[in-house]
Amino acid sequence: MRIKAALSLVVITLTCISPGHLLAAETNTQDLAELSAISNPNDPCFGGCAPYGVPWHFEAIGAPEAWEITNGSSDVTIAVVDTGIDDQHPDLVGRITRVPGCGLGQTNQYSTSHGTFIAGLIGASANNSLSTVGLDWNAQILDVRVMNGSNGRTSDIAAGIKCAAVHGADIITLSFVQQGSQLSPVLQQAISEAQDAGVLVIAAAGNDGYERQRFPAAAEGVLSVGAVAQSLDIASFSTRGSWIDLMAPGEGLLSLGAGQSNGVRLGQGSSFAAPVVAAGASLVKARFPYFDATQISNQLVRTAKTHISQVSSSQYRILDVEQALKQPYRSHWQVTETGQVIALGESEHFGDLTTRPLIRNVTAIAANLTGLGYWLGQTNGAVTAFGEARDLGDLSTMTLNKPIVDMATTPSGNGYWLVASDGGIFSFGDAQFHGSTGAMTLNKPITSVVQTRSGYDLVAEDGGVFNFNSPFLGSAVSENMGSSIVDATSRVSRW
User: Fold this and answer.
1) Domain 2-326: which topology?
2) In the chain, where are the structural domains located?
3) Tens-digit pLDDT string for the chain (495 aa)
4) Helices 270-287 and 113-123, interaxial angle, to 10°?
5) 161 beta partners
6) What's the per-residue H, E or C state across the chain?
7) 320: phi > 0 → left, psi -120 to 50 → alpha, else beta; which?
């Protein structure tokens, strides 16, 4: 089957094509002749190219802060399955690899505008005093040309996806859409094989401006990407809908041009939002090399910024690379009764109480939602916040009937409960009071409070469970225990 693709930069052009054909954006570029010198990085267009000003998307996704953590790794490979890449562009020399027989091979520079623009967004070299800079300064870019300019065949694209997966791609970015309500079985098979090989497949949602599913972006397991404008509202051209996983800058982007000028060009389209996310994914892989494709995708989505459209009031998530790199995936803290905090895994140490005089022993620690802060609770009800955890209040000025024995955060991470040994519950932040055992006569004192999806459970020394706005799942009262219950936990998915 022959595929016709319309590839778009400055002007978005949608061409009517027959069923089974693929559509991307039309190449209409404008060279930027005047460059201004800047530093950090020293690539001229990082500070702005006249007359277009400073590239806005870096700040929008937290790129400068992300670069303080990692600039990427040459151990990570992103496959650009597209129109081909001008590997002679000075800002891409040494960054582009090809595998003989993988795709249609190299073509002339003028036919690679779309692919070169994508490659520049991903990985234009930094600090070389040339043109602009990509998001990932070190990842390898695998060039898999599957289109001749604006034309391509489904079989070639499928073969290119399979080949990229076989030859070490960690991430594949696709900037085309297929017309129709179902994905071509040939493309579905290729994507499935890539996913089975552990590859993260990222695809542009499309540029038709309608609320409908487009493929391959809507395929199972594919990280679908729509485009936002500088206002952070959905770009007028972007396909939209709740099925889209992530939004990223896709309007007024500066990247590399192909051909004799080797210039810098201005472009727009979800075609370019997708590689921005792909580069973000490669930074996550560099930061957390043990992440698999699903974990990378989940990390990008869970740490994205929630935005409500000023036009439609719809809510969506926008890529935030800084948070994707900062927020630990595996974190664990321990605290002693003297207030010393030990950080394990990817956890950071945000401070503790070892240098402060303690009125009472520390009895609990609880993390905030991002994993970039925590609270310490003392038996007198005093709570101290560290890192990004906010001070939401405590009981330090109150006289308690019984000491505080535990604390738990709400599913949002924006509140917490303190529990006393008599089962008295004290709520702070967005934590809601659902009841307590404070007025009850207990056989044994309460030792812990457990967060549930809609409320909390209190657990006593004898294993008794008191559920409040949560289902009763049983207790250990009837068990023949040789010692007392000292703590309890549950698994509640927050991310």
Assistant:
1) Rossmann fold (3.40.50)
2) 2-326, 331-468
3) 444 343 333 322 222 222 233 444 323 333 332 222 223 577 777 777 766 667 899 999 999 999 999 999 999 999 999 999 988 888 999 999 999 989 887 766 557 889 999 999 999 988 887 778 899 999 999 999 998 766 678 899 999 999 999 999 999 999 988 877 788 899 999 999 999 999 999 999 999 999 999 999 999 999 999 999 999 999 999 999 999 999 999 999 989 887 655 578 888 999 999 999 999 999 999 999 989 999 999 999 989 999 988 777 788 999 999 999 988 777 789 999 999 999 988 788 999 999 888 888 999 999 987 788 999 999 999 999 999 899 999 999 999 999 999 999 998 888 999 999 999 999 999 999 999 999 999 999 999 999 988 899 999 999 999 999 999 988 887 777 777 777 777 654 443
4) 30
5) none
6) CEEECCCCCCCCCCCCCCCCCEECCCCCCCECCEECCCCCCCCHHHHCEECCECCCHHHHCCHHHHHCCCCCCCCCEEEEEECCCCCCCCCCCCCEECCCCCCCCCCCHHHHHHHHHHHHHHHCCCCCCCCCCCCCCCCEEEEEECEECCEEEHHHHHHHHHHHHHCCCCEEEECCEECCCCCCHHHHHHHHHHHHCCCEEEEECCCCCCECCCECCCCCCCEEEEEECCCCCECCCCCECCCCCEEEECCCEEEECCCCCCCEEEECCHHHHHHHHHHHHHHHHHHCCCCCHHHHHHHHHHCCEEEECCCCCCEEEECCHHHHHHCCCCEEEEECCCCCEEEEECCCCCCCCCCCCCCCCEEEEEECCCCCEEEEEECCCCEEEEECCCCCCCCCCCCCCCCEEEEEECCCCCEEEEEECCCCEEEEECCCCCCCCCCCCCCCCEEEEEECCCCEEEEECCCCEEEECCCCCCCCCCCCCCCCCCCCCCCCCCC
7) beta
Distance CA 201, CA 155 (A): 18
pTM of the model: 0.75
Question: The tokens of 375 are what?
Answer: 């609270």
Amino acid identity, position 468: F
- Please identify every residue annotated as catalytic: 82, 114, 271
Out of 1.10.10.60, 3.40.47.10, 2.130.10.10, 3.40.50.11270, the CATH code matching 331-468 is 2.130.10.10
